[in-house]
Amino acid sequence: MSLEPLGLVKIDSIHYYVRDLERSRRLFVDQLDFAEIGGSSPEMEQRGRQRSRVFQANDIMFVFMEPTEDGGRAWRFLNKHPEGVGTIVFQVEDADKAFRLLEARGGTMMSDVKTFTDDGGSLKTFSITTPFGDCTFRFVERRGYQGIFPGFTAHETPKGGSNRYGFTHIDHVTSNFPTLAPALLWMEHVLGLERYWDIAFHTDDVAGPTEKGSGLKSVVMWDPYSGIKFANNEPMRPNFKQSQISLFSEDHRGSGVQHTALAVPDLMSTVASLREREIGFMPTPGTYFDALPERLQTTGILRIDEEIEDLRKLEILIDGEAEHAYLLQIFLKEAAGLHGDPEAGPFFLEIIQRKGDNGFGGGNFRALFESIERDQRAAGRIA
Predict the structure, then answer these.
(1) Is residue 383 part of a domain?
(2) Domain that includes residue 307, residue range
(3) In a domain, 1, yes or no
């Protein structure tokens, strides 16, 4: 079933609720080299009972919000969850049209379309609830609007980083659910997204029935007009409760965004530099790279530009399905591990470089799952 498109343009920004704004600034500005471009105005901070800072690298914008007193949106989110993504903002061509289509399809609107103006033009916006736990979706139409968002003040000169690692855009967003079907139906029948890719596996499936290991089912939905992609996971039997997807739901205390993938043009250089700055990445065992030559032949990748030993040194994953078309990716540790604080939450960042492959790499998907599972087993969370 193909529905009339909403007119999505791109992911405008990710809004992230935290207890320690300065800790987030150190990660994004001092280590990942994002620029701080602005923040909430004093009036907005008083009205919203929270303070915000906006970090940007090229077309990627994260808005971090920290409660200043009880009762605000950030406080309510953090009263139920650890730190995490509370809002995803989408730029649309026509906010009124998007509102009309979403409401007609059964979307739960949180407000009417609101219009704001500044010296450059106008911004229209509205929000809806979602099956993504307490994460809402906001839609914005920008018509020459010069500001960041209403109530935010831009710095005259951006502070901090200069995007030396070359982050370009958000490649995809991945979310976890205890049950996937309702979310998929909502994405299809309300948002009008289409199925793009799917996979299901168990970490010990090659050994037959087992009491250890766990699995997942993942379905990627996308908007073919903008290219926006959502990867969506649920736990898989037989060891449903041991699945890292189920553990995410326990840690996050509900469904929500697990990670966001940031695209770069040269992942090898990016990761080498980030490792020098002691960024924590999820580990990849040496056996992954021992088996890599044979796996590349099996998947159909006959030629890569990188040396396998260089990939091994940096622990970068590779996957694909064509002779000289593949992707490279790596995953930062969960925020709780990066910051040494369980309440920092299970969210993490992926960094990805696409070299002619637009898929999701089934082998790497499994490698990431197994990497998280190893960490959880080492921590005594699973058997």
Answers:
(1) no
(2) 170-378
(3) no
> What percent of the chain stands above pLDDT 70?
90
How is residue 188 annotated by DSSP? I
Angle at 57 between CA 55 and CA 61, to 5 degrees: 50
Q: Which long-range contacts (CB under 8 A, 24 or more apart) does 181-184 make?
A: 182/131, 183/131, 183/132, 183/232, 183/255, 184/219, 184/221, 184/232
Mark residue 72 as left, alpha or beta (left: phi above 0; alpha: psi -120 to 50; beta: remaining). beta
Q: Which of 377, 264, 381 is nearest to 330 (CA)?
A: 264
Do residues 125 and 184 both lie within one domain? no
Domain-terminating residue out of 104, 128, 160: 160
Domain shared by 231 and 357, yes or no = yes
Q: Are residues 149 and 205 in the same domain?
A: no
User: Tokens for 327?
Assistant: 């992707």
Q: How many domains does the chain have?
A: 2
359: domain CATH number is: 3.10.180.10
Let me know whether 131 and 175 are in one domain: no
CA distance 69 to 163: 33
Contact assessment for residue 373 and residue 203, using Cβ atoms and an 8 Å cutoff: yes
Question: Domain check: are 278 and 147 in the same one?
Answer: no
Kindly report, residue by residue over 80-97, the tens digit of the pLDDT.
999 999 999 999 999 999
* Apex 136 CA angle, 89 and 139, nearest 5: 35
Helices 244-252/362-378 angle, 10° precision: 60
Model confidence pLDDT, tens digit, residues 218-237: 999 999 999 999 999 999 88
Same domain for 176 and 218:
yes
What pTM was estimated for this model as a whole? 0.93
34 inside domain: yes
Give the pairing type, strands 317-322 and 325-331. Answer: antiparallel
Of 160, 189, 224, which marks where a domain is finished? Answer: 160
CA 164-314-271 angle, to 5 degrees, is 15
Interatomic CA distance for residues 36 and 51, integer angstroms: 14
Helix (H) or strand (E) holding 172: strand 170-176
**Token pair of 146 as six digits:** 């010069």
Token representation of residue 154: 């831009």
Residues 139-171: tens digit of each pLDDT: 999 999 999 999 999 999 999 999 999 999 999
